[in-house]
Amino acid sequence: ASVRRSLFSADEERKAWLQHILSGILNILQKKQGLDDADNYYEFCRLLSRIKPNYQLSELVSSESYVQWVELSAHFTVESFINWRATSVSHFFLLALWSRLISSQPYLKGDKPSRLEAYVPQVTQAFIRSRLELAQAVVQDPNCVADQLEN
Fold first, then answer.
1. CA dist., res. 143 & res. 134, Å (int)
2. At what angle do helices 66-82 and 91-103 cross, to 10 degrees?
3. CA 57 – CA 108 distance, rounded (Å)
4. What's the chain's average pLDDT?
5. Do residues 110 and 61 touch, judged by C-beta distance below 8 A?
6. Residues 59/8, Cβ–Cβ less than 8 Å
7. Strand, helix or coil for residue 45
8. Confidence of residue 149 (pLDDT cuts 50, 70, 90)
9. Sign of the Cα pseudo-torsion (18, 80, 53, 110, in order)
10. For the whole model, what pTM was predicted?
11. Contacts for 126-135: CB closer than 8 Å, 24+ residues apart
12. CA gap 132, 128 in Å, rounded
């Protein structure tokens, strides 16, 4: 996802590259291909987190796959938060994605809506719910979660 702007000779090439990346992500999100492997899941979340730092929100919104991408990314994030026991190491990347999308909302130019208002509440609720479930699980069994500081 991280390719220098100077490598593209025209904006159209860069837009085509973004469309190619979003199409690949959509394919993975739709088929859940390879996401049952913990390493693949982690790297896929890293890929998602790298989309926004490399493209302006206006570029993303103008992509033909954006609407489907933001919807499926939101559902993927919510599922990840719900399954916090298996996916907690990847949450940082998902939170980074949504944080960057939200923080760039005021700077969005153009006529196309970002549709973030439809998905951010769901993502936020799922994250808060997962933290409450985590707290409850730790109260019941302090050893239920690996100490991230031990590594």
1. 12
2. 140
3. 6
4. 88
5. yes
6. no
7. helix
8. very low
9. positive
10. 0.87
11. 126/77, 126/78, 126/81, 126/82, 127/81, 127/91, 127/95, 129/81, 129/82, 130/81, 130/82, 130/84, 133/84, 134/84, 134/88
12. 6
For the chain, what's the residue count? Answer: 151
Burial 90-103 (b: 16+ CB within 10 A, else e): bbebbbbbbeebbe
Token representation of residue 118: 């439809």
Q: Which amino acid is residue 92, in one-letter code?
A: F
> 26-52: per-residue pLDDT in tens?
999 999 989 999 999 999 999 999 999
State pLDDT tens for residues 58-85: 999 999 999 999 999 999 999 999 987 7
Return the residue matching tokens 């969005």: 108
Structure tokens at 107: 């700077």
pLDDT for res 147: 56
Mean pLDDT to the nearest integer, 86-110: 90
The overall longest dimension of the chain from CA atoms, in Å, is 58
Distance CA 124, CA 139 (A): 23
What type of residue is 62?
A: S
Q: What are phi and psi of 34, to 5 degrees?
A: 80, 0
Distance CA 149, CA 151 (A): 6
User: Which residue type does 67 have?
Assistant: V
